[in-house]
Amino acid sequence: xxxxxxxxxxxxxxxxxxxxxxxxxxxxxxxxxxxxxxxxxxxxxxxxxxxxxxxxxxxxxxxxxxxxxxxxxxxxxxxxxxxxxxxxxxxxxxxxxxxxxxxxxxxxxxxxxxxxxxxxxxxxxxxxxxxxxxxxxxxxxxxxxxxxxxxxxxxxxxxxxxxxxxxxxxxxxxxxxxxxxxxxxxxxxxxxxxxxxxxxxxxxxxxxxxxx
Length: 212
What we know:
The protein has helices at residues 18-23, 45-52, 113-118, 183-211; strands spanning 4-10, 26-33, 36-44, 60-65, 68-80, 85-93, 100-109, 121-124, 128-133, 142-145, 155-157, 168-169, 176-181.
């Protein structure tokens, strides 16, 4: 992936006054880490929004704070969902020579034959897997192929996945990542039947009460 550099300046404004900066098109943030004092920063909203688009929690970015550069992970992004815009970002500065722990997103790929052939439901049970590795060895995401899930009950566990020998996985190898179930469709059918008969019973009750 192309190296992402985010330019920032040190921020002296805190608290409610930050709102003024946001209205001027700026985003506040902080850079923290084991070996540095936290640095309050300010970034251009348009530039940083474009820079972090598509990045994951394991993507390494370079924060350029007035010429002082820090390799970092994006640890938290706060958004104003009414305006659909970023309002704050936390970055964790890391040493490229020290291993770190991070939760990596699990993405499903393909189409399970059980969905088409048996009306199965794809149940994505584990969306993140926690690992430890050097920053450059952290995967962006884990891709899990579900093309071989052919019948109800088929599943993929952590132990079925392939991991680089450069990372340590902390999740239990028996944990289920994805499974094919038919329970949801059966429950839906039962609930539909129940819902269709219930109004008739209620309606009868109302009529009987009225007649009394």
